Amino acid sequence: MTTSIAIVITTRNRPDNLETLLKSIKDNSKSPKTVMIVSSGENVDNVLRKYKSSLNIIHEHIKVSNQFFQKQIALQKTTKNHDLILFLDDYDILDKNFIHECIQSFNDLDLNVAGMGVTVSNYSVDIPKFRFFRKKIFNYSDVPGSVLKSGNAMPYQNSPKFSRTNWLNGTSVWRSMIFEEFTHTKMASSYSAAEDLIFSYPISKKYKLLTNSDLKIKYGKRKIVDKQFFTRNKSTNLHKLFFIEQHPELSKFWFYVNLYLSTTAMLISFIINPNRRLFYSLGGNLVSIMYLIYYEFLTAMKLLSATWLTSQK
Question: Among candidates 1, 3, 289, 8, which has minimal Cα distance to 173?
């Protein structure tokens, strides 16, 4: 029977968000066994002092700003003595019965259920325009949680309880045994784009991944600086191609079709209505295209492997 859960939080420069999250954990109807926090950037000791008497907090602060390393440090300290590992972003806010529902759900299901996604109550999935065309180029699907040939992963919000999904995002809960068999891909970028897709998709081929509408969270306020969209877009494109290279059922052709069409659409939008966010997003796409041309040329000569794509900062 599942009895213990560790909450893993990676955080950087968001002490106010972290405090709101810790308060929601403290106010839960059931307490976790451990709250493992790996921080970088701004010091969060003052925030943690307020909750150390009510929560079993383990804290590590690292100088490197890298989500991959933060997660690895947390997993080293939690997987061997907990049944479940819950990954949270620092801007998440838990429903008051979240931990109870989480443990109860896993107790009610067989061991072949390896991971579970949550429902974000203040987030809605936008239905895009031109759906017929998007489906033709494997950009969109009506099937929640599906992974398309282009490498695009469909959101699974608002799915019925215990619906199957082919992937799970960063806010998800896992049986700890899964980390003995599967590991996260090392990424050099400060923004580990597509990390959760790369990790969870191969697991879905062997085990069941489910969504759970009873596991409710809210997203708190968070500020995204426009410049971050450069790194986000660049890393997303490089990491997504790495993902596609690992799975023969996916298609580089449709990946590139989507990349060039989205870049063209960004360029047209920027010409019509220039703004800083579009400027950095477009810049990230254009730089990633240059990297990908370099990658394809050298891999054709057998001088590079796909791991090069995740080694770029």
Answer: 8
